[in-house]
Amino acid sequence: MDTTTALFYVFSAVLLFAGFRVITARSPVHAALYLVLAFFNASCVWMLLQAEFLAISLVLVYVGAVMVLFLFVVMMLDINIDLLRQGFWKHFPVAGVVGAVIALEMAWVLQRGFQVATVKPMTNPNNLPNSKLLGVEIYTHYLYPLQIAAVLLLVGIIAAIALTLRRRKDVKGQNPGEQVRARAADRVRIVKMAPVIEAPSVAAPAADANASKGQA
Fold this sequence. Notes:
By secondary structure, this protein is an all-alpha fold.
């Protein structure tokens, strides 16, 4: 057994263990962390298969972005774990049968990949790495579809930002731009007042009332 085969078995064993712990861990945070471990080991297996682009994409996209988002959502939401786990063993037989059928179908489809004698060696006349060959294909033969996909992603990003910036009547917010542009004269106004203010006389209305009673 050479080093590549030994590493394949190690990464595959850790990947299976992490995948099993994802569905059996009681804490959703622990399940998400085990899923990160599974992604890392899958990336290592792809690296052994000389699929460098897929390995780096898995680490950057899923581990670096998607799983971080999952962790933020799980930590910010108040999830009742006991309520979610109710009825787990009730549906376990059906889930086990479905999982076994899926595993058998995948094994039947991929059975030729385990036959080493039938695998043909990859011929690369240019002797270039996988990532460089993929980049050459994308930016030569598929340049216009790539630009269209980039424009669509840009429109999606702008639309998502526009949806978050819409005004809602039930939410009070502040405008940082107006706060920065504020001046002292806009916040404080100095009013000049007389130093002495005469108090209104109370005796005059009382005298007028006594005079009206006398006339009556």
